[in-house]
Amino acid sequence: MGKDLSISVLLDFYKQLLTQKQGDALDLYYNQDLSLSEIAAHLGITRQGVRDNIKRGENQLFKLEEEIGLAGKFAKVSAICDIVNSYVQKLSEMELGEGANEYLADISYNLKQIEDIV
User: Fold this and answer.
1) What percent of the chain has pLDDT over 90?
2) Cα–Cα separations (whole angstroms), residue 31 to 9, 35, 48, 64, 94
3) Which contacts (CB < 8 Å, 24+ apart) does range 104-111 have?
């Protein structure tokens, strides 16, 4: 079973919506890098049970992302914040006057607030 590291990102957003065993198995497999056998011993289930929980959990995460889209929205907002930050940086390097610098400081502050939320 090859590891799709995007699962780790989806897990951050949706782990609480999975069953306890699915969430634990996915976390141990993707974030802790344990083998199926190690996870089986840790959870007290069979290796096949671990594999089934991981597969069901992965499918559920993809379905949740398709329906809700939090990870995709987060990535888009982060990318837009990065672009706007680069524009603010370039503008702040120009001599635009005190009024413009105040607006740029306000924009930077508000972008920071957005980044803290996402």
Assistant:
1) 68
2) 10, 11, 20, 19, 44
3) 111/81, 111/84, 111/85
pLDDT in tens, 63-77: 999 999 999 999 999
46 vs 40: CA distance, rounded Å: 5
Distance of CA 68 to CAs 14, 25, 52, 85, 103, Å? 10, 23, 24, 27, 35
Report the run of H or E that residue 115 belongs to, with start and end: helix 98-117
Of residues 24, 33, 23, 30, the one with CA closest to residue 6: 30
pTM equals 0.77
> CA angle, 24 as apex, 18 and 27 as ends, to 5°?
100
